[in-house]
Fold each of these.
Amino acid sequence: MTITLGLETSCDETGVGVVRDGLLLGQALASSMDEHVLYGGVVPEVAARAHLESLSGCLRQALADAEVSLEQVDAIAVTSGPGLASSLHVGVSAAKAWSVALGKPLYAVHHVAGHVAADTLQHGPLPERSIALVVSGGHSSLLMLGDLATDPIVHLGDTLDDAAGEAFDKVARVLELPYPGGPSIQRAAESGDPGAVQLPRPLLTQWAEHQRYAFSFSGLKSAVARHVQLARRSGEPVRTADIAASFQDAAVDVLVGKAVAACVDHGIDTLLIVGGVAANARLREVASARSLSAGITLRIPAPRLCTDNGAMIAAIGDLIVRSGADPSGIDFGADSSAPLDRSLLV
Ligand code: KG4
Ligand code: ZN
């Protein structure tokens, strides 16, 4: 029996989670999102200060939620990358200090591997082979997975420009909807007609051979911006709900289309969708319908486990610890652009 503590501070959420052998015992989350709304995006210095102020309280709260004492913790996992450097430093420094003070092994883990592991808290261990569509503020990737704790992560495709969440955030800004853009677009789209504005589905039906599973969202974002600009110039009202719904459908079409194709092409029958954008209701609905008709088992964690949190870092830490991997020691730094090759970074 192993109890793993996970710390997440890569962006604007301070998260602490406690996992025992694949079971989430407790967690706590604090967010500085409200402080960034005014600026329309995350301000790194503000986020880092908020992590400093929240981390100890989140630790106490997560342990209380899990009914576990700090002494009962067997291992600590921390996001050491990728993310905002100043934010990552807060979690990494705290994790090192607690590791030394308590004499517990420390594991430096990849943030996105945490997103994938979050699903195992809800749906149990991963099958031998699966495909993961990672859609967050910083990533849009189609990954082929074996053992998440020990095997190399194979990239089938990545975004050529913006990440999916970044596209939602930028389009929301064009539509003058509040940060974070994803939930704002989803809300606005509820009363819109997804067929109102014809928008491109980049790389969905036509692609160069090496871009079969690649994504590109900047053209879609520019098409929305052009549409809005034209409406404003000609004095027409900007139909925010219709544009939001049309954009959301175009993005979802591309994401789900490529993910299902990757599963079919590779003969893999389990698809995971993870990361902040996986909280999107339309994405969940379309992915569920298309997976069903393709005979694919779809796994998407509950929305609370899709956006950044500490439970996901405890989850990947727990898998790594139980795989018997060597700990990272304390001689590592935060790596804001850590490559997604393996779950354990050091
Ligand atoms: O995974 P995450 O919490 O942080 C990163 O690792 O980046 O993802 C944040 C992204 C943001 O771009 C946010 O707008 C998007 O996830 N997001 C959504 C929704 N909720 C969050 N996008 C679409 N629909 C949502 N409901
Ligand atoms: Zn994330």
Amino acid sequence: MVIILDFGSQYTYLILKSVQQLNVDCKVVAYDISIQEIQSINPEAIILSGSPYSVLDDEPPLCDSKIFELGIPILGICYGMQVISHYLGGEVVHAKKKEFGYVEIITDGEKELLKGIQTGDVIWMSHSDKIEKIPDGFETFSSTANTTFCAMQNPARKIYAVQFHPEVSHTEKGLLVFRNFIYDICKITPNWTPVTFIEKVSKQIEEEVGDAQVVLGLSGGVDSSVTAVLLHQIIGDKLIPILVDTGLMRKNEVAEIKQIFDGMGIHIDVVDARKSFLENLKGVADPEQKRKIIGRHFIEIFEKEAKKFDNVQFLAQGTLYPDVIESSSSKTKDVPSVVIKSHHNVGGLPEKLNLKLIEPLRELFKYEVRVVGKELGLPDEILYRHPFPGPGLAVRIIGEVTEEKVRLLQEIDWIYIQELKENFYYDRIWQAFAVLLPIQTVGVMGDDRTYENVCALRAVNSLDGMTADWTRIPYQILRKISNRIINEVKGVNRVVYDISSKPPSTIEWE
Ligand code: XMP
């Protein structure tokens, strides 16, 4: 196993993903993990992440300096490289000129860490401090026009570092850096697969749950469905999957999901909470407030439902790694940064939750969840269903949510998705949905003036939802969808198409 010491970088998860992509087990831990804990994990390599902080701050996040004495190979990335310099006698200074974005690397092409990377290859930088002097015993073998020390190593002490970010896709040959470090320098054997994951997680859950019962919030999306089937396989009928009909789901979705799970021999309880969700959302237009209200109400319902069974002690959720990272900057403690959105299955949890959480997919990305789901025998209908956010259509109705707006959006969405499927385009898109805007525009129908709602169509391609590009749906398909929506959904007279990528936009509008 490889461990990543997380100093609060937004990209820590991308380091995890890079290592997992090389089929090596990996875990993110707090930057101040103790030496004893590291020794009990017994990792084959340690990676030090980047950070929004500076080692020159008054109280910078720093790891225990004894990690450099353990003899375990270390790779420092950006701030991680600066931590190494700081501790081992180098010098870090605030750079006069920040280096941010694409840069061409200069390298002698001989050292193992950058094997296969040539001068002129594009790397991605994001740092405002730089190393003025590398520690004694280290050698450098790479620079950029702005940075003298772009990489350094001390092979005798097994310590390596790069100033750039090999984990982001903008560094074209970034994965090669991890490959060189993990396979060639650390000599780690790749043996991590989704099957290993299932085996490991099964053992842990079986032990943790014991005789207790587990309630699970099922939405019918890939994440909660895979969680349900995985848990059902491990603990059987001790799992109680509850599908809360919030009234904010897609048209006919509740009935479809129930039918699919019945077909797999898994009974689900459907709780009709349509009225209370709408009541709770009455008069609320702020996106974060909506998310928090929905998250809280979900939990209230779970707790209430759980009380109907005698021995419920756990709440299972299909939380994925991107949900965790975007909801709380850092997966580990005490490294604050910016909350992008409160994903309802994390951000809305009340402090005093009476049930313990089980989140078996917490360290996986969507594409890995699909591989696990396939292994568990879930039908493609579920596995390749586009992701659907926990707060449902509420975050796709900009402004206040009302019953009428939900009905309108369900009709629009139904036509959109149906057309994508009929034109064999649904499977070529990662996620497609419609958004109802809080504005009316003027139109003309027959000889009459109309003044009705506008909806936006969004379709994106993505690997994990963390970055996304808008999908170039052929015009003829878009034309048909637009015509059908305007002609068939009373109350809509204009359709627009969203051509924003993430970042800087997000996938959902709220
Ligand atoms: P954003 O809008 O953050 O969305 O770019 C990234 C992916 O996450 C989905 N999403 C959610 N999923 N609970 C979820 O389970 C949520 O609260 C939530 N909010 C957004 C979104 O649909 C996209 O796939």
